[in-house]
Amino acid sequence: MVAKLWKKVLFVILIIACLFNIVNKLVHKASLEQELESSAQYIQQQKSEGELTN
Fold it and tell me: Helices then strands (H, E): number in the chain?
């Protein structure tokens, strides 16, 4: 009886952990996109400055 209860409790904890992980990745996806955008802008700015000095 107790073994079945522990299996169910651990299964529920596993599902909650997976859902938390998925939601966390979705939330941070926008931040990653912004980071990549700002990096691309910085690289283009450096290229433009390099062309001006040459």
Answer: 1, 0
